[in-house]
């Protein structure tokens, strides 16, 4: 994506797909995290090599099931987790070589990796740049030690203190940070102090999202046992609604509820999820969507390596799913193209009728088949999306 002053209008794209790879190990399991991940301390994972072999095996099996993938082109690869920066760079390199040998790959292939602060270093970024990784996202969440302790996150003070210095001197230009707000015990001003510290560095991508309480996490058990409290919803709504204007002043485009980018620096991979493009999900706990079918892998690394059924798929249900993803976008998109491509006639009529009602209420603009939310829709978003699918 080139930097441009014109806003990108998202549209249906038919000849590409993305690859997501889940590396399930972390230094420590955070209390609020509901991704499949296991805390294993500072050392490497015992099964790292066999896990990478299983990734290749899974890709091959899924391609045998969907041979048409060979006619598409991979334009995004995303190493997520867990903490993929915990894995050896050479293993990512071999995996990328494998993909290049098996598939058509776009010339401007986006290759992203999530990095945790404890792994970040100038040397690591050099290594990544050498193997073609061209996008790095660091899960910071907060720089406040009290907040990190509340979240049960590993905190390496030296690394947290030097991370902006490292990122602003990165050989990889497309770098971003995740920050979280609404952490109990922290004030609104704590979040803004983190944000302004990071804004000064001018990184091209920021994900700013609220803490949520997910079932099955340590955090949810602690809330149930009255050891911790729920996320601060009032603070969250206040920050959520203030952010678009503030970020715009700093030159960022608000392209998804929680995501801001300098022009041309949007995450092409994450846009696939919101624009209903196909992707292979590889690794334990990963999900994929290919040729109108979804699948999910076992949330257990050894079970995944022993036996992952690669012939079990559920058909997608675009009449309801499309709204859940597409209408999270706050940048403009060609809504008529999307609904004509994915929905049956009666759902198309329902979508169009509802969108016109939203326009009358001043919640969105529509023109020449292009849809864009207005800020007024933000706090109502969940209900609005629900209203289009029921
Ligand atoms: S580091 Fe990330 S993936 Fe790992 S437990 Fe924490 S939030 Fe989850």
Automatic annotation (TrEMBL):
Gene3D superfamilies: tm_1862 like domain
InterPro entries documented for this protein: Coproporphyrinogen-III_oxidase, Elp3/MiaA/NifB-like_rSAM, HemW-like, rSAM, rSAM_horseshoe, rSAM_sf
Signal peptide: none
SMART domains for the chain: Elp3
CDD domains: Radical_SAM
Domain (Radical SAM core) ranges: 10-256
Known role: Probably acts as a heme chaperone, transferring heme to an unknown acceptor. Binds one molecule of heme per monomer, possibly covalently. Binds 1 [4Fe-4S] cluster. The cluster is coordinated with 3 cysteines and an exchangeable S-adenosyl-L-methionine.
Family: Belongs to the anaerobic coproporphyrinogen-III oxidase family. HemW subfamily.
Pfam families: Radical_SAM
Subcellular location: Cytoplasm
Entry-linked SUPFAM superfamilies: Radical SAM enzymes (SSF102114)
Main location: cytoplasm
Designated name of the protein: Heme chaperone HemW
Keywords: 4Fe-4S, Chaperone, Cytoplasm, Heme, Iron, Iron-sulfur, Metal-binding, S-adenosyl-L-methionine
């Amino acid at each position: 994506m080139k930097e441009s002053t014109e806003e990108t209008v998202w549209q249906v794209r038919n000849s590409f797909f993305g690859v997501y790879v889940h590396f399930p190990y972390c230094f420590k399991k955070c209390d609020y995290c509901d991704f499949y991940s296991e805390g294993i301390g500072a050392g490497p994972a015992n099964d790292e090599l066999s896990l990478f072999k299983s990734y290749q095996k899974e890709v091959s099996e899924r391609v045998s099931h969907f041979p048409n993938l060979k006619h598409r082109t991979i334009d995004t690869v995303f190493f997520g987790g867990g903490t993929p920066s915990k894995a050896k760079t050479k293993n990512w390199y071999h995996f990328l070589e494998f993909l290049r040998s098996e598939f058509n790959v776009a010339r401007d292939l986006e290759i992203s990796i999530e990095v945790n602060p404890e792994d970040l270093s100038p040397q690591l970024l050099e290594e990544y740049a050498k193997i073609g990784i061209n996008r790095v996202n660091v899960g910071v969440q907060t720089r406040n030690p009290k907040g990190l302790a509340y979240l049960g996150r590993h905190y390496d003070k030296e690394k947290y203190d030097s991370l902006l210095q490292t990122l602003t001197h990165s050989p990889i230009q497309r770098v971003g940070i995740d920050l979280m707000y609404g952490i109990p015990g922290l004030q609104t001003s704590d979040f803004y102090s983190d944000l302004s510290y990071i804004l000064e560095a001018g990184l091209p991508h920021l994900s700013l999202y609220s803490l949520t309480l997910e079932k099955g996490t340590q955090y949810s058990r602690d809330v149930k046992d009255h050891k911790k409290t729920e996320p601060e919803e009032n603070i969250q709504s206040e920050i959520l609604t203030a952010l678009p204007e503030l970020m715009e002043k700093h030159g960022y485009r608000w392209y998804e509820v929680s995501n801001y980018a300098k022009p041309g620096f949007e995450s092409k991979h994450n846009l696939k999820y919101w624009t209903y493009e196909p992707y292979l999900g590889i690794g334990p706990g990963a999900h994929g969507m290919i040729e109108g079918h979804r699948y999910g892998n076992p949330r257990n690394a050894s079970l995944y390596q022993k036996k992952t059924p690669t012939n079990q798929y559920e058909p997608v249900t675009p009449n309801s799913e499309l709204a859940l993803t597409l209408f999270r976008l706050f940048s403009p998109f060609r809504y008529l193209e999307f609904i004509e491509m994915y929905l049956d006639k009666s759902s198309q009529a329902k979508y169009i009728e509802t969108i016109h009602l939203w326009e009358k209420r001043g919640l969105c603009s529509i023109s020449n088949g292009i849809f864009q939310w207005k800020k007024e829709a933000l706090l109502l978003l969940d209900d609005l999306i629900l209203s289009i699918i029921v």
